[in-house]
Amino acid sequence: MDEKFVTIYKTIGENLRDKRKEKDLSQQQLADLAGKIDRSKISDIENGKEDFLFSTLLKICTALDINIEELFKR
């Protein structure tokens, strides 16, 4: 992962975790809802450790029924 983008990855991860918890979902439940995503990938994204594809983020947002813009807010 490019060090220049660490802050935004962490912001996305923190917001993702908050939204997942608001929906009372485990990482595994979210991974299952998003389809073909490993639970460990959800964990890595939430912890700002994963350089993910945009399509992966879209699948997660669809599973959470949220707008992708919500993940970029600080």
From TrEMBL:
UniProt cross-references to PROSITE patterns, sorted A to Z: HTH_CROC1
Keyword set includes DNA-binding: yes
SUPFAM superfamilies: lambda repressor-like DNA-binding domains
Domain HTH cro/C1-type, chain residue ranges per copy: 16-71
Keyword DNA-binding (UniProt): yes
Keywords of the record: DNA-binding
One of the Pfam families matching this protein, by short name: HTH_3
Source taxon at top rank: Bacteria
Descriptive protein name: Helix-turn-helix transcriptional regulator
